[in-house]
């Protein structure tokens, strides 16, 4: 009887628990209460990044069509279509837009019933004299946008005199409601370190109280409407103000935004998330840093989100008096009043809502993972696993219910987790193994893949690194990652090219791979192929790598036929690997080009310099820098890695002045390094217009000075070297043994047969003849470090162990000196060419340790056979007795020309 009672009770408990679980799982407004099925962060090798198109011209927003073609818009007015079958991009329309300041063709969305009605929604600044932005829809039939089908839904009066902030993102929620974000459209260039609240007569365009904080203006808002089938729109239930407009414009859902550039809508509960791009202020926050906060906001309901009165967690900004130049009152976030004479709406505003996430230029103590420096916060989509049933590339259950946010300038993506009430809980990096060039849009497709638009490096320009990319996640069997290696991507016709797919990777090691090439309409099998391109032109080569389970990875490369890269050579009688005191480096630069019959000698660039740290040679060659500018490497590297590149470039107009123009303006001015270094750290405006420069308070004064020194060097003309010369090598004297000389010669041809001009270079890098043994390129010995002596050396030298140095020129070298420590029975150091069993050109006998057990370091010398040309040098260690391990230790090797 007792056991039956327990069985009934247990059954009842299980039923109640199951009901509770079902209720909470399905009635928690989209937030999972229970533990996630998978709590393991997915391995980064399960993501495949595919570049679909590049070289775009300011891409703004995209839409994934039902057939997985991608429609996207560019700011200057182009509507483009990526065809997923042909893997090509086509311009299908050009909208007449005003593309000054930050305006242009900004937003794009598909109607939720696109498969039936073919409506595409665009938001753009209308071309012409009238200042207004328009929300309109057009029919997309096949690959044609029908201009005559335009239906204008909404027009917003704007001003085009001052920059900035247009926003303009579009998105539908799950109920068919259309959302549009609008920027404050206010003069952001004359804020004097405060906020644009200029109430002086005639200064209305510099007062955000007339736009963002104005209930009777559609700017600085997120709007919410329902498009009607026959045209026009209706107001949905639940906007901020009554439908009759008695308290404010009925289209407004949220207000009080500065530049709500990118937003997303939770498709389960309707919550809205957006990144609001922050100002540059000199107002201190409660944490002691400047209130230059970017924000990620969450709207569970309509509301006022603070700007221009509050930032972050409702920290109040003073109402700056531009007439007296004094900061004034701070508003009450529980009852903010808009008393500006430029306000045309209600004076009493809704209570201010705090940001969900906020961060400034300094490292954030509240959200430390976001980093520091310049910022442009954006909100991407929320992922729900059950919205992608049977999707082949759907993300792991680990990300179920998480919001993806990203930052244009800092380059990260974060996955945000919420608690049971839908409030912020934590964030973590997403795809941190990938680098992005100004991520500007992020969306899921029905197959679970993530599509992204990357704006590229320079503002307001076409960028080679502006891309449309697709990211696929796969559990179970992973798709191979195809990679093409080409021996000659450029050349004259006919061009015989060797193509290899051998660098392709499949992380499922046991898979068998099949390689298939598509070249000029032909299909060719094999991991390696040879193909002859007979006529000039630019050809696409596609490699498909298929595993034995049917997964396919694809890569595409271009072959440019019609122009041969120039041949640049440096002839020299000197040793091409080492320098010695009192040496001359003689050289002669020779350039040949198949298409350029006559070489313009004035276009051959020859440069030479000494680098205190020899490993900087690779940095200079990778960055095409003048070796004479070695002293500025640290500064140039910092400029490349900080957020500076978001506003400045070398010689191409962007948001801020070019580095070269800065260099020209300040060349030779007194104390300019100190002045500009201070500007880098503190920010400011006024020298290049009123646009504010971001502060970089985390940069030290010394590092800022390094950056400024590099910029100022750009206007200094270096003397042109002749094509034939002898240079005395004396810059290394008194500067240690770590330095290198670099002679670099380069030439750019004229281009030919429709193929762009090509660059080629040759160089000679000379290092100190003292070579540390532990710097070997390959070997099977250990490296020991003695910290107190600042010394490292090779140890664990056993019979037939070795170290190898790549490509050493032995011309003129007559002896080799070794610094060895005898610790055992001794042995031999054999110097061999090109392999462990190659020609023997030198042998040193290392004696056994002394009977008293002393293990002193000794300098021992061996002769070397006269040898010409570059060789891989193998230092092979052999035993001379029964002891086969720990024969001796080796610190350095000196190559002597005496």
- Give the strand tally: 55
In CATH, the homologous superfamily of the largest domain goes by the name: TolB, C-terminal domain
Number of helices: 7
Q: How much helical structure, as a percent, in the residues?
A: under 10%
Question: What fraction of the residues are assigned to beta strands by DSSP?
Answer: 35-45%
Keywords: Electron transport, Heme, Iron, Metal-binding, Signal, Transport
Protein name: PQQ-dependent sugar dehydrogenase
InterPro entries: 6-blade_b-propeller_TolB-like, CBM6, Cellulose-bd_IV, Cyt_c-like_dom, Cyt_c-like_dom_sf, Cyt_c_ID, Galactose-bd-like_sf, Glc/Sorbosone_DH
Biased composition (Basic and acidic residues): 197-206
Please outline what is shown here:
Residues 769-896 form the CBM6 domain. The chain is mainly β and 898 residues long.
Q: Which SSEs are present, and which pair or pack?
A:
Layout: H1 2-26, E1 47-54, E2 59-64, E3 70-74, E4 78-83, E5 88-94, E6 105-110, H2 114-117, E7 119-125, E8 132-141, E9 144-157, E10 167-172, E11 178-182, E12 221-227, E13 233-234, E14 252-255, E15 260-265, E16 272-276, E17 294-299, E18 303-304, E19 310-311, E20 315-316, E21 318-321, E22 326-330, E23 357-359, E24 377-382, E25 403-407, E26 413-418, E27 424-429, E28 439-444, E29 450-454, E30 467-473, E31 485-486, E32 490-491, E33 495-500, E34 513-519, E35 522-525, E36 528-533, E37 537-547, E38 552-561, E39 567-571, E40 584-592, E41 605-611, H3 616-623, H4 633-641, H5 659-666, H6 672-682, H7 701-713, E42 724-728, E43 740-748, E44 759-767, E45 770-772, E46 778-779, E47 782-786, E48 791-795, E49 801-809, E50 815-822, E51 827-833, E52 840-846, E53 857-863, E54 870-879, E55 888-896
